[in-house]
Records
---
Amino acid sequence: MKTKPYYKYSDFSLFHGNSLEILAEIPEDSVDMIFADPPYLLSNGGFTCHAGQMVSVNKGQWDVSNGLKKDFEFHLAWIEACKRVLKPGGTIWISGTYHSIYQCGFALQVAKFHILNDIAWLKPNASPNLSCRFFTASHETLVWARKDKKAKHIFNYDLMKNGTWPEDALKKPGLQMRSVWSIGTPKMIEKKFGKHPTQKPSDLLKRIVLASTKKGDVVFDPFTGSSTTGLSAYLYGRNFIGIDSEKQYLDLSIKRFEELDKNMKNKLLNVIPSYVSGWTDKYFHQSAFDIQLKSPNKNIVNFLSKFRPKNTITLYRGIHSFNDKNYTGVESWTYDKKIAERYAKSEKSGKIKEKRFFPSGILLDTTLLSDIEKKYLGYDYEIDDKEVLILKK
């Protein structure tokens, strides 16, 4: 991309500028999921209720309507731009009130998206209606759609059905998740560094990320605001790209992200024993240590067992003179045959092995690690070799 990130750390990137212009620089078919909370375009000088007080609905120039026709053209333009960067099976979530969601829904149809669901997000703690001449607005609508009608999208059905969702009074344990979600507005702790006028609660975005992506996926938000989407993506090991036109909200995003990153690291320090990270770091960087590495002891093996696959897997190993002489009791294999070929071809006499392994014979599957877990265990290579450590018998 020509535009440099306003902020980047690990797999979390923020860009400042016009969303359509920066979207044009993102490669085609490169994004797995998009969450968009576009401007509602309702800053018209009116008033609403917030925290029991009458406040202006004006949020900024970015939220001012330009008339029905131009508003629709705006929504269609960014939705079509998002479609270009989505993978065929990629999905988009759009959140809005009646001020914008119907235009967005129609724009999705014009852009030939395949609509999967509409979700009613019920706000049990919504603000009251000041005029007492209308029903109290206590929900927003989320539209979930797939780029290609014939493609297969990600939906983590079992997690949605059997997961623990204490924030939602409507979700019954062990039953299918329905299309009405009862989730409160953002908690005070989520506004610790300030707030965005249309900030979404973390519980809402965590559910969306977990429902429609897998680890390592690319999540994109074209109107990132205070980046609740990005925080949820990073928390669960997804990559994130966010764009916003307002620096004040990007600065707010950075403060929120850096606190999350710090908390995650502190938690890992208390969870991953030093004897485990010490051994794995030495294993992954053997060439940097003069002392020969010993085989992992029982405590290390037991701790790392949580990072084993549940089923039998097929792996590959590129053999050459250096790695054929292994004295640690552990061998490195990979899910990717091309990676094994690359190692084997480093010598003319190199060769490739292919073998199936039961979970009990696996010490560590690095594809099951989050980005932060990889760093703490020393698996911090620029190129991910999809490495699996096998216990030699």
---
Amino acid sequence: MENAGRIQILLGAIVILLVLVITPAIIGKGKHEIQAINISPYNRTKALILVEYASAVYIVDDTSLLSWTCSRCQGLTKDFKIHTLIVEVQHCLQAFVGVDEDLKAIIISFRGTQESSMQNWAEDLYFKELDLNYPGVTDAMVHRGFYAAYHNTTLREQVVNAVQAIQQARGDLGIIVTGHSMGGAMASFCALDLTANYGQKSIEVITFGQPRIGNSAFATFYMDSVPATVRITHGHDVVPHLPPYYAILGQKTYHHFATEVWIFKIAIGRLQYEFERICDGSGEDPSCSRSVSGNSIQDHLNYYGVYLRTEDNVLALLNGTGQILGHCKTDVSS
């Protein structure tokens, strides 16, 4: 029995070494070539902080958010100073903007979808075609619903106003944009908007379990504009696999931008080892999340042990009108 345990530990050590050493990469081909060079700005300590902001924005109690006393506001983000809370009731969207003194940054966090059924939302994404030309960029196509959720609602104006107001008082702060799921999609469009249309510099993006939002022409433009971007994926999370990627379709298929960091586990007997792989610069590294099936809602709702959704007991409460508190349908079809 003792020898078996030693063998198991040895096998685990071998697996760890192999994972650390072997990091295959590919080079994209075509008119908009995406190089697989890794220039990742990934910082795990920063990611652990940002995932708490991505979780806190799901809180539906406005008072506890504005006072930063919510149940998800007491960890690594406890000293955060919120400046603006944005609640877009018509389209069921929420975001906040504030200052993290430890990070020396303006934090912008977008809430993900509030669908009661993540499975139904994911199935809707599976069949969504590229249906909007991204303004000013040749051949760039994006998902109309994700684009509109940021650009065609009150979110954009209020986020920009909050950032500019903070910068008038503080000129020493960078900008970090985050979000989970659909919130990650909006975070990406926001960072690109602030860079391309408002001349903002020093913008970082860290998202969790975000879907694809455009084709490879858009991905190339995005990576050139916002290179300090990290897309964190987890295990078999279904959402990063959506809408689907079909290499054979060229510009007519969705294509992730870099840099992905994939969190995954390997089991050796009864032991489980968790790893983080910094993927190549193609955005579609076949050795990362694309190497497994995207079939897990559970992996989508948990990153670094942090829960990323409105609490189920809150979703179940009824307000005076009979509408489910904290639940509404986020329309990504227009």
---
Amino acid sequence: MEYQAPRRPPGTPPEPSDHWKNFLECVKSRATPVAEIEWLVRASASCLLANVSMRAKTRVDLDEKTFTVRQAEAMPFTRLDYRAPWKLEV
């Protein structure tokens, strides 16, 4: 017998796990996911930039071509210094 998820009332927003299931199904089937990656990048970036803005105590403007912030006082909050011997090479 296969597991059946409980039915939700119509109009109920999807669970976060539904997006992961859909993504994995689309990887297998090569179909288009319900949430485009560009939407997810913008949603994540807006939350991260809000945190940068709060820490820097200033407004933050994003240069969308380079994905960098324009305010110098916010720059330190956009980078992460790794402890030795760890480093990120891009």
---
Amino acid sequence: MLEPMKISVSAEALASPSAVIAAEGGRASGLADAARAALAPIRRLDARFFQIVFLGTLLLFGALVRDFALQPEQVALTFAAGLAAQAFWIKALGLKNVGYLSAFVTCLGTSILVRADSLWVHPLLAALAMSAKFTIRIRGKHLYNPANLAVILAVAVVPGAWASPGQWGSDVLIGLWFVCLGVTVTTSAKRLDIAWAFLGSYVALLTARMLILGQPHAVLIHQLSSGGLLLFTFFMISDPMTTPNRRPLRLAYAFLVAALAFSWQFFLFQPNGPVWALFLLTPLVPLIDWLWPGQKHVWQSQAKRPVEPGASC
């Protein structure tokens, strides 16, 4: 006679499916916590450190590989004037807890975006842009993004200067690097929402235009692979000090900038549409913050210290 087969069943196998799922979920949660703990020191860094590293790398890459047609003397004078202007206003206003990170970002942005035939243009723009941060202020925030203001002054006021938004070419790979590194910066600055809202709105408008005109997809790809557009998206409009404090209003503001940039570029047939759109719509930001107040952004380097008036510079 055959004996009954003996089957050994582990306690884990006898456990209910919900218990097994809970155990798996616990392990996944532990891994997520470990990942967050590993990234915590990086996320605590001031977002401007990432900006400086990225823009500095871009400037070096452009000078060595893309031939930015930028003289070393222009870069040196830009930094000298920008940092000197920052130091002057810090001392003149008696400010504390104000460093030079923003000045470095502004000088790098001005060097990358502006071209000139002479040596005096870049330092003048850097000094004016940095001075505007301390003198043109509403409700504790500077009004204009310094790099945006520098580009506008270059194309509209200063003779012998122009913006060079397309100097990187149309390499899709470079564009992807812009996006990846830009995500890092804007996530740290808590302004990823406005960057993607602007880019999504602008892409939607470009796509609609392509379909209406019956253009090939290559036209859209060429427009979206512009280094200037991606630099604007992740390092200019995403400036947390010159955008609305409340998230829903930031999204609406991003759409307005995209719509005006599109109109400027394709109805008025003028260059530098995003830069002009941001400049013209920037005065709406303090009005929006006054009508619908929200929590003001504080840089990580100032988060644990008392912030004085003007210290958000």
